[in-house]
Design a protein that fits this description.
The structure holds 2 protein chains of 2 kinds. By secondary structure, chain A is α/β, with parallel strands linked by helices. Chain A contains 23 helices and 17 strands. By secondary structure, chain B is mainly α. The chains are: A alpha/beta, B mainly alpha. Chain B: Pfam families: PSF1_C, Sld5.
Amino acid sequence: MLTLTLLFTNFCDLTIDLFLHYFQRVALLVSSDIDALCACKILQALFHCDQVQYTLVPVTGWQDLGTAFLEHKEQFRCFVLINCGANVDLLETLQPEEDSIFFICDTHRPVDVVNVYNDTQVKLMIKQDDDLGVPSYDDIFRDEEEEGGDDSGNESDGGSEPSGKRRRYDEGEVERRIERQRATREWEARRREILFDYEQYEYHGTSAAMVIFELAWVLTKDTKDMLWWAIIGLTDQWVHDKITHMKYVTDIATLQRHVSRHNHRNEDEDNSLSIDCMRISFEYDLRLALYQHWSLFESICNSSYTSCNFKLWSMHGQKKLQEFLADMGLPLKQVKQKFNSMDMSVKENLREVIEESSNKYGMKDIRIQTFGVHFGFKNHFLASDVVHATASLLESTEKDDSPGDNFIKALDCLSRSNLERLHGGIDLAKKKLMAIQQTVASCICTNLILSQGPFLYCYLLEGTPDVKLFSKPMALTLLCKYLLKAFVRSTRNKRCKLLPLIIAAPMDVEKRTVIVLGIPPESETSDKKNFFGRAFEKAAESTSSRTLHDHFDTSIIELKMEDRTKFLDALITLLS
Amino acid sequence: MFCEKAIEIIRELHRMGDGQLPAFNEDGIRQVLEEMKALYEQNQSDVNEAKSEGKSELIPTIKFRHCCLLRNQRCIAAYLYDRLLRIRTLRWEYGSVLPTNIRFHMCAEELEWFNQYKKSLATFMRSLGGEEGLDITQDMKPPKSLYIEVRCLKDHGEFEIDDGTIILLKKNSQHFLPRWKCEQLIRQGVLEHIMS
């Protein structure tokens, strides 16, 4: 049996029970991504259990975080930050009072070294087996008293001796000082190197929702709802390609143990639960986005895995798809109608049939391990369905929605009682996926992706249809990843297949800014580590471009349209 | 036709359903009172005439005018009483301090009545529940939990709760607060109770 102990680093064993004794009230600052929303829901449920008073404030970036902190620092001593704050020196940025404490549950890595080694004010919520790779204390920090002590000792010794001997001591002292200075310079050079290596690549750790679920489990206050939210948090990391496949599979196994534990009662025939109760089940299901809420045909056309493998932007690809469907014996009429209305005979072994045919067409991983939830007769959702729906609600570009409104809507749709909202989200997600598919098709067909040497570059012009959707980071990330996969499939240039991709799209038409984001190269064994954060910072500095590094992911920035060309040139020089 | 004005002011009050308090119709009441005064004076003179000169044919007219007077009296009494009932529910809804726009709708006597009612209610509440008294205007329905989750619908600024701490109520922020503190604001529409 595995022991899953939750370690709060900085060697402090504070749990939620102690929250109540030390602090009356807590401020929850939550970032705007699905994993954070799920973690927030679990934490809220825990707080309700223990009647801890809290205030929930959504934050979209560093500026928002700063403003929220300033507004609330008078009234709160305890702050919980979800999916924000770990990768920057928090105390330096926020300048809090001595008695403020921050609990950070953030998937962003690398964690800033000051945050790791701070004993009093910053508490990181990280699982024990999540290796941070933090450099050791002595390599980065140095007590300055060491140098002063040596000198004063020698001077006092030298001063009490007669003059003859003193000259000798003086020479010795000068030599020692030169030696010390050389050692210091060496130490500092090594320190810079270590920090550079540590902070160069940005990646993500275990899902925040899973960490907080573990906390709930340790407190034996976990419920199926919380487990479902943890599953959605993990699936979000997979959908938006933040973690490696290995990590995803490992985390799925962890959650599978919890699911079995919760499903224990279902297996008892005599006392089984009513159909209206929530059941979570492990599914080895198809990698087709939203296919149970759409038609099979639409889902195949708009999922990045199938679309890239068939190359559906070309006529040839369309023909292959028709062959594929024929090979499985699925009539077109069936496949193009709503999934729920398909004949039972067709739906029966659908997954196995599709898997068999996909193997013939070179798609070995059409099925992926995931979870689904049932409640009532009508309601069946896969975790990825909920992720897509919530992401579309969170980044909805309807006219009257402010980021705060979207956050509230997305948070609501995670509750089981708000099914209409979830269905609304699914509809928006369908539109988003279709828009992504069409944009990818047009970019590939019009050769909009150009190689700039060390990286590929794509710029979405202002008149592109649905370009408003892509002014949001998550939607743009999905588009970017999909685009890179499609490009790697369609290009013949072997070198270009190994390059990372930078995409830029108009963000705010009035302020004339673009959103720029970079993703690492596409490969089977990619470790998803992204170096663009540092690269963007350096390029912006060297050309004094007007950039805003507001997003918690450092590889996403906002840039003034006019500075685009010089920024790109600087990047090219930097990365060559 | 007599008594039409009286019916008009009652209809006006009836139209504003749902416990809302329209402005006090000073004008209407004054007109009705004037009508009543005119009728009374006419009746007075006719009665004297009938008594002194024995004109019994005036009696139906006197009876008719008397009926009108009673009718008017009944209408005005109903109007005033209904308003008082509405003002009483306002105390239970809004607490002891009424919003200024509602106070403008009340006449001076109604305000006086409201203050007296407040005092009576306060004395009664103090007499219950031992030393500190019991606030019976809270928890009109049995509460399910001590704390509830609320969402802020508009910017309300700072809000103080029992232990002195101040909460900033900003649009779209969510809070987990003691139920009794939130009830007022929920009724006013500043906060929304979230049930998940």
